[in-house]
Design brief:
Structural class of chain B: alpha+beta
Helix content of chain B: 10-25%
Shape of chain A: globular
Number of helices of chain A: 4
CATH superfamily of chain B: Calycin beta-barrel core domain
Structural class of chain A: alpha+beta
Number of domains of chain B: 1
Oligomer: heterodimer
């Protein structure tokens, strides 16, 4: 609960990378490697900007006094989600009338890619055969096997979906399926269906930076695939550890999502 | 020949019953895999007959020898009250984090990952996680957690995890067994075979118990093809159930 309250404060005061253009491939610098030669991505990281947690598209200061921010959509070039018309109408309705339905306000998991730009960061482990990510937000985790096994049957849907990874050179490519239709991309009501398919590409550019891109396909909702991109930065504070994020245990945020309730406080 | 000789030597070294285990690249016992308890401890740590949703079962308490939790008198009374109200009072019924050690013997699998620096455990129930640092760091002060603060080290073939900074809001089982925020745990994980891991916990809480006590149980490795950790987003199902409930 306190962490959730912190989240709101962070949304309001972050903006570390506010106004920055989406990550562009930088000149490769040195980074550590594991004994098997693969990039060593282990450590504690966070997205360089939490602005997409508010809205993945360009957005002005909105009614919750959330800071303005730039789109992280690098394709299509206009930086807008290529919604089908019905879906654009639905998105507007969600934004205008249903923000309290943001799944995160109900303490449910964020889904992929939203989990990757949630505040508080995450820790990457690389035990043999896996990339494992523990997130502070919602104590979510992602287990990414590298053994090429198949995704589970389509009928098994999950908030975080099912991730399978492989290395393409120094890029970790993660294929994400089996997501349910309950998560959003942000607080602005940007949404997807249970047909969402995400392909993520994590490329270390130096010891402390990962270039993150995710291509999102969902033929039920969009007219074409679209891609987001941003930098993920290493947390270099000595001794820093992820804390526990207990959300449902003391959930009180929901009432703050309705202006009337919020104003009374 | 050299290679065969080395393999033979390794085979001999590993043939001792307690050593029948693989090791990680850095030479530590390999505890990795997907594990699950196969007992009724989640229902009641003590000997118990069957009740709603809980099969009858034997105690997992190995010390004290009578298999009873050594409650102080006031605490025994409170435990009885918890038991009587367990259907609504159990924190798990609200989908709260289960705490340690209860998370270990819930009827859900969990996966252990190892690197030289960390043991990372991902639990299917409520997507709980534990990150156990092996770097000799100290517990945090003046803070408490639903899942506590875990620091580990190796003692021979056993992973020893000290857990502190637990809050007082979790239960130890569905029978209302409880503790205070002074509880401290020492967990011991020992691989005893290709598909078994012995899990032992010493529980100390001077506010609630008259003496430290100990539980012990085997954990079993899932060997089914394509077995994996899925997701149990507990309170989402609770919300759905409430929506469907008659008004």
């Amino acid at each position: 609960m306190t962490r959730s309250a912190c989240a709101l404060v962070l949304f309001l005061t972050s903006g570390v990378a506010f106004g920055q253009a989406p990550a562009t491939p930088a000149k490769a610098g040195p980074f550590k490697r594991l004994p098997d030669g693969k990039p060593d991505l282990q450590g504690i990281w966070a997205a360089g900007t939490f602005s997409p947690a508010d809205d993945v598209e360009d957005h002005p200061v909105d009614r919750f006094q959330i800071r303005a921010g730039k789109s992280i959509i690098i394709d299509p070039p206009g930086g807008k989600i290529p919604y089908q018309q019905w879906a654009l109408d639905k998105k507007k309705d969600l934004f205008e009338h249903h923000m309290y339905e943001d799944p995160e306000a109900h303490c449910t998991l964020s889904g992929v890619p939203r989990q990757m730009y949630a505040p508080f960061g995450f820790q990457i482990f690389q035990p043999a055969g896996y990339v494992v990510i523990f997130f502070e937000a919602f104590h979510a985790f992602r287990i990414i096997p590298l053994n090429g096994g198949p995704h589970p049957p389509e009928s098994i849907k999950m908030f975080e979906g099912d991730s399978r990874g492989r290395w393409e050179g120094d890029t970790l490519v993660v294929d994400v399926t089996n997501q349910n239709d309950k998560t959003w991309f942000d607080m602005a009501g940007n949404f997807h269906s249970d047909q969402i398919h995400v392909v993520e590409r994590l490329t270390p550019v130096d010891a402390d930076t990962i270039n993150y891109q995710a291509t999102i396909t969902d033929p039920k909702v969009y007219t074409r695939p679209w891609t987001i991109g941003f930098a993920i930065n290493r947390n270099k504070r000595p001794g820093y550890e992820l804390m526990e994020f207990a959300c449902v245990e003391g959930e009180q945020d929901l009432q703050h999502y309705t202006a009337g309730e919020g104003a009374k406080k | 020949m050299m290679r065969l000789g080395a393999q033979f030597l390794i085979a001999v070294l590993l043939s001792g019953a307690a050593l029948a285990q693989t090791r990680t690249a850095d030479g530590k016992p390999d505890l990795q895999g997907i594990w699950q308890a196969r007992n009724t401890a989640a229902g009641d740590l003590e000997d118990h007959g069957a009740s709603q949703g809980i099969p009858a079962g034997r105690r997992v308490i190995v010390d004290p020898p009578d298999g009873k939790i050594p409650y102080q008198p006031w605490a025994a009374a409170k435990r009885k009250e918890n038991y009587n109200h367990r259907a609504i009072a159990d924190p798990l019924g609200k989908c709260f984090l289960a705490g340690v050690p209860r998370i270990t013997y819930l009827p859900f699998p969990f996966q252990i990952f190892q690197t030289p620096q960390f043991i990372a455990i991902a639990y299917e129930y409520d997507h709980a996680t534990r990150t156990i640092a092996l770097n000799g760091s100290k517990h945090l002060e003046d803070i408490d957690f639903w899942m506590g603060d875990s620091r580990g080290h190796w003692e021979g073939n056993t992973l020893v995890v000290e857990v502190a900074d637990l809050n007082e809001q979790t239960w130890l089982d569905l029978a209302g067994d409880f503790h205070s925020d002074s509880m401290k745990l020492v967990e011991r994980y020992t691989r005893t075979g290709p598909d078994t891991l012995q899990y032992e916990v010493t529980i100390e809480d001077p506010k609630v118990f008259t003496r430290p006590w100990k539980i012990s149980m085997p954990l079993y490795r899932h060997t089914e093809k394509d077995f994996q950790i899925y997701e149990y987003e507990c309170h989402d199902y609770l919300e759905e159930a409430r929506k469907g409930a008659p008004k």
